[in-house]
Amino acid sequence: MAYDYDALYRETPNALGRPNADVAAFLDHLHRPVRLLDIGCGQGRDALPIARRGHAVVGVDLSEAGISDMVAAAEAEGLDLTGQVADLRDYRPDGLFDILLVDRTLHMLDTGARHAVLGRMLTHLRRGGWLLLLDERSNMLGLERVLDSHAAPWRALRRKGGLLFAQLDR
Asked: 8, 92, 97, 168: most buried by Cβ count inside 10 Å?
Protein backbone atom coordinates (compact mmCIF):
# COMPACT_ATOMS: atom_id res chain seq x y z
CA MET A 1 0.00 0.00 0.00
CA ALA A 2 1.48 3.29 -1.10
CA TYR A 3 -0.39 5.61 1.27
CA ASP A 4 1.09 6.15 4.75
CA TYR A 5 -1.92 5.69 7.01
CA ASP A 6 0.31 5.63 10.10
CA ALA A 7 1.34 9.23 9.41
CA LEU A 8 -2.26 10.27 8.73
CA TYR A 9 -3.54 8.66 11.93
CA ARG A 10 -0.71 10.09 14.06
CA GLU A 11 -1.55 13.59 12.81
CA THR A 12 -5.35 13.43 12.58
CA PRO A 13 -7.81 12.08 15.13
CA ASN A 14 -10.81 10.42 13.44
CA ALA A 15 -9.03 10.86 10.12
CA LEU A 16 -11.58 8.92 8.04
CA GLY A 17 -14.63 10.74 9.35
CA ARG A 18 -17.92 9.46 10.62
CA PRO A 19 -19.06 5.82 10.75
CA ASN A 20 -20.65 4.45 7.60
CA ALA A 21 -24.39 5.21 7.69
CA ASP A 22 -25.35 2.07 5.74
CA VAL A 23 -23.49 -0.14 8.21
CA ALA A 24 -25.06 1.68 11.18
CA ALA A 25 -28.55 1.26 9.69
CA PHE A 26 -27.95 -2.47 9.18
CA LEU A 27 -26.84 -2.88 12.79
CA ASP A 28 -29.98 -1.11 14.03
CA HIS A 29 -31.92 -4.24 13.03
CA LEU A 30 -29.86 -6.75 15.00
CA HIS A 31 -31.68 -8.20 17.98
CA ARG A 32 -28.76 -9.90 19.70
CA PRO A 33 -25.07 -9.25 20.26
CA VAL A 34 -22.79 -10.55 17.51
CA ARG A 35 -19.10 -11.19 16.95
CA LEU A 36 -17.87 -8.94 14.14
CA LEU A 37 -14.57 -8.75 12.26
CA ASP A 38 -13.77 -5.26 10.93
CA ILE A 39 -11.26 -5.84 8.13
CA GLY A 40 -9.19 -2.68 7.60
CA CYS A 41 -10.57 -0.90 10.66
CA GLY A 42 -8.11 2.00 10.77
CA GLN A 43 -8.72 4.07 13.91
CA GLY A 44 -12.03 2.31 14.57
CA ARG A 45 -14.41 4.56 12.64
CA ASP A 46 -16.92 1.70 12.40
CA ALA A 47 -15.53 -0.67 15.05
CA LEU A 48 -15.93 1.66 18.04
CA PRO A 49 -19.62 2.52 17.47
CA ILE A 50 -20.33 -1.15 16.82
CA ALA A 51 -18.69 -2.15 20.11
CA ARG A 52 -20.65 0.62 21.87
CA ARG A 53 -23.82 -1.18 20.77
CA GLY A 54 -22.72 -4.21 22.81
CA HIS A 55 -21.15 -6.29 20.05
CA ALA A 56 -17.80 -8.08 20.33
CA VAL A 57 -15.48 -6.61 17.70
CA VAL A 58 -12.11 -7.66 16.35
CA GLY A 59 -10.48 -4.95 14.23
CA VAL A 60 -7.50 -5.64 11.99
CA ASP A 61 -5.40 -3.09 10.14
CA LEU A 62 -1.89 -2.63 8.80
CA SER A 63 -1.50 0.68 10.65
CA GLU A 64 -0.05 0.41 14.15
CA ALA A 65 -1.10 4.02 14.85
CA GLY A 66 -4.69 3.30 13.81
CA ILE A 67 -4.93 0.17 15.96
CA SER A 68 -3.33 2.00 18.89
CA ASP A 69 -5.89 4.83 18.68
CA MET A 70 -8.79 2.39 18.44
CA VAL A 71 -7.63 0.17 21.30
CA ALA A 72 -6.97 3.16 23.57
CA ALA A 73 -10.50 4.47 22.96
CA ALA A 74 -12.00 1.01 23.55
CA GLU A 75 -10.08 0.52 26.78
CA ALA A 76 -11.11 3.96 28.06
CA GLU A 77 -14.76 3.01 27.52
CA GLY A 78 -14.49 -0.63 28.60
CA LEU A 79 -15.60 -1.95 25.21
CA ASP A 80 -15.35 -5.53 23.97
CA LEU A 81 -12.98 -4.65 21.15
CA THR A 82 -9.66 -6.23 20.20
CA GLY A 83 -7.21 -4.73 17.73
CA GLN A 84 -4.68 -6.64 15.64
CA VAL A 85 -1.93 -5.16 13.49
CA ALA A 86 -1.55 -7.32 10.37
CA ASP A 87 -1.15 -7.27 6.63
CA LEU A 88 -4.43 -8.58 5.22
CA ARG A 89 -2.56 -10.58 2.60
CA ASP A 90 -1.21 -12.82 5.39
CA TYR A 91 -3.85 -12.40 8.10
CA ARG A 92 -5.70 -15.42 9.47
CA PRO A 93 -8.45 -14.54 11.96
CA ASP A 94 -9.19 -16.72 14.97
CA GLY A 95 -12.54 -18.47 14.99
CA LEU A 96 -15.83 -17.67 13.34
CA PHE A 97 -17.73 -14.41 13.09
CA ASP A 98 -21.38 -13.45 12.68
CA ILE A 99 -20.47 -10.46 10.53
CA LEU A 100 -17.51 -9.61 8.32
CA LEU A 101 -17.23 -5.87 7.67
CA VAL A 102 -15.00 -4.71 4.82
CA ASP A 103 -15.49 -0.95 4.52
CA ARG A 104 -13.45 0.38 1.58
CA THR A 105 -10.29 -1.61 2.22
CA LEU A 106 -9.88 -4.22 -0.51
CA HIS A 107 -9.46 -1.66 -3.30
CA MET A 108 -6.00 -0.95 -1.86
CA LEU A 109 -4.84 -4.42 -2.92
CA ASP A 110 -4.14 -5.66 -6.42
CA THR A 111 -6.88 -7.80 -7.96
CA GLY A 112 -5.36 -11.19 -7.09
CA ALA A 113 -4.69 -10.27 -3.47
CA ARG A 114 -8.11 -8.59 -3.16
CA HIS A 115 -9.89 -11.76 -4.24
CA ALA A 116 -7.65 -14.06 -2.18
CA VAL A 117 -8.16 -12.00 1.00
CA LEU A 118 -11.93 -11.94 0.59
CA GLY A 119 -12.07 -15.67 -0.16
CA ARG A 120 -10.01 -16.49 2.93
CA MET A 121 -12.09 -14.21 5.17
CA LEU A 122 -15.32 -15.84 4.01
CA THR A 123 -14.15 -19.12 5.55
CA HIS A 124 -14.39 -17.38 8.95
CA LEU A 125 -18.07 -16.52 8.64
CA ARG A 126 -20.68 -18.58 10.48
CA ARG A 127 -23.59 -20.10 8.56
CA GLY A 128 -26.31 -17.46 8.44
CA GLY A 129 -23.67 -14.75 8.94
CA TRP A 130 -23.41 -11.51 7.02
CA LEU A 131 -20.83 -9.93 4.76
CA LEU A 132 -21.02 -6.12 4.73
CA LEU A 133 -18.83 -5.18 1.77
CA LEU A 134 -18.14 -1.65 0.57
CA ASP A 135 -15.57 -1.01 -2.14
CA GLU A 136 -14.94 0.72 -5.44
CA ARG A 137 -17.83 0.19 -7.82
CA SER A 138 -15.41 -1.10 -10.45
CA ASN A 139 -14.26 -3.93 -8.12
CA MET A 140 -17.69 -5.22 -7.14
CA LEU A 141 -18.22 -7.67 -10.03
CA GLY A 142 -14.94 -9.46 -9.25
CA LEU A 143 -15.70 -9.50 -5.52
CA GLU A 144 -19.18 -10.91 -6.17
CA ARG A 145 -17.57 -13.67 -8.25
CA VAL A 146 -15.51 -14.60 -5.18
CA LEU A 147 -18.79 -15.04 -3.28
CA ASP A 148 -20.26 -17.07 -6.15
CA SER A 149 -17.30 -19.45 -6.02
CA HIS A 150 -17.67 -19.96 -2.25
CA ALA A 151 -18.87 -23.38 -1.10
CA ALA A 152 -22.24 -22.15 0.20
CA PRO A 153 -24.87 -20.01 -1.53
CA TRP A 154 -25.38 -16.33 -0.70
CA ARG A 155 -28.47 -14.17 -0.49
CA ALA A 156 -28.04 -10.47 -1.21
CA LEU A 157 -30.05 -8.20 1.06
CA ARG A 158 -28.80 -4.95 -0.38
CA ARG A 159 -26.79 -4.19 -3.50
CA LYS A 160 -26.09 -0.73 -4.85
CA GLY A 161 -23.03 0.70 -6.55
CA GLY A 162 -20.06 -0.13 -4.35
CA LEU A 163 -22.09 -1.78 -1.58
CA LEU A 164 -23.15 -5.38 -1.08
CA PHE A 165 -24.73 -6.76 2.09
CA ALA A 166 -25.13 -10.51 1.69
CA GLN A 167 -26.00 -13.41 3.98
CA LEU A 168 -24.36 -16.82 3.87
CA ASP A 169 -27.24 -19.28 3.53
CA ARG A 170 -27.99 -21.32 6.58
From this structure: 97
